[in-house]
Amino acid sequence: MKKSIADRIEKLQEKYDAIGQDLETHLDGLLYSKPIRYWDFVQTDALLNLQIQRTEFPDEMVFLMYHQINELLFKMILWEMKQISYNENLTAEFFISRLGRISRYFDALSNSFNVMEEGMDVAQYLKFRDTLTPASGFQSAQYRMIEICATDLINLIDYRFRKTIDRNTPFEHAFEHLYWQAAGKDYKTGKKTYLLKEFETKYKDSLLRLMQEYNEINLYDKYKSLPENVRNDIGLKNAMRHLDYTINISWVMHHYNAACKYLLSEGENTEATGGSDWQKYMLPRYQKRIFFPDLWSKDEIENWGITNLKSYKILE
To answer: Looking at the structure, do residues 98 and 150 belong to the same domain, yes or no?
Structure first.
């Protein structure tokens, strides 16, 4: 037997001894199991059977698959965020590398809006979208999770109520004043829409638990907890700013522009499927969603979402 194989068996023996398992049983399992195949690992058949259309319009499939891809990317983003938040020996290098991954995922999301902008027939969209009411991208729980994992809750509170809420505010109360709540309420009566009620029935409890879990380990808190010399690392600051800008301006504006093409295509303000005032809800300049406010100047914050997409400066 080759020494390298003997060494591996010895290490396997140590591994299974440590967890009270019999090595020979696991070796027998390896002997009898089939080699893994690409379609087994990726679960191709399962993935390709998740596309169930509600109409016969071909472009509904584009719309459906596009949003499923979005949710997969959201899961990848949350995976990277968790690595930062639960890292007890966080370095600038590790922080920057994971922020870079998240930014690239959001860059992919931003660039992919061309799939809808250029890849769907407007007439088809305006027909099949009626079958989706009252569902809405507003109900993407993973996107809400990304926001919660990214920053202190105060930065997600509706701009009108931020002065009345602090870290001592109960999570339940803060939840009711998150910026996106306004998009899920009837602006005349203030009552929650069916869209919001359904979303909260399914996800409110899990979101409240996440708010508590990440209250002191979100990306912004992890950054603020670093030693001063690490916080002042220019590469880290630029990575934080890039992520903030990529999520809260670039991605949002690409989303907004895609919505405009379809919802304003007939020369009128078409209501979103969920009934939200989508323009005020989406445009960054209204809510000024900023994950890492200390890393932006007063002027940059005042002009948040107003200036050109490529206007923010790289720190030197």
So the answer is: yes
Residues of the chain with pLDDT under 70: 264-281, 307-312, 316
83 and 216 fall within a common domain: yes
Q: How far is the CA of 247 from the CAs of 74, 143, 144, 182, 202, in angstroms?
A: 12, 10, 12, 20, 25
pTM over 0.85: yes
Indicate whether 87 and 179 sit together in one domain: yes
What CATH number has the domain bearing residue 158?
1.20.58
In the chain, what's the furthest Cα-to-Cα distance? 79
CB contact at 8 A, 266 and 123? no
- CA separation for the pair 300, 228 (Å, rounded): 23
Does residue 197 share a domain with residue 54?
A: yes
Structural domain containing residue 23 = 3-33
Cα distances (angstroms) measured from residue 146 to each of 78, 140, 240: 6, 10, 15
Buried b (16+ CB within 10 A) or exposed e, 214-240: beebbbbebbeebeeeebebeebbbbb
The burial of 174, by beta-carbon neighbours within 10 Å (0-12 exposed, 13-18 middle, 19 or more buried), is given as: buried
Is residue 194 situated within a structural domain? yes
Cα separation, 72 vs 286, whole angstroms: 28
Amino acid at 85: S
- Asked, for residue 61, whether it belongs to a domain, the answer is yes
Question: Is the four-CA dihedral 240, 242, 246, 250 of positive or negative sign?
Answer: positive
256 in any annotated domain: yes
Domain count along the chain: 2
Where residue 185 falls (left for φ over 0; alpha for ψ -120 to 50; beta otherwise) is: beta
Backbone torsion region of residue 288, taken as left when φ is above 0, otherwise alpha when ψ lies between -120 and 50, otherwise beta: left
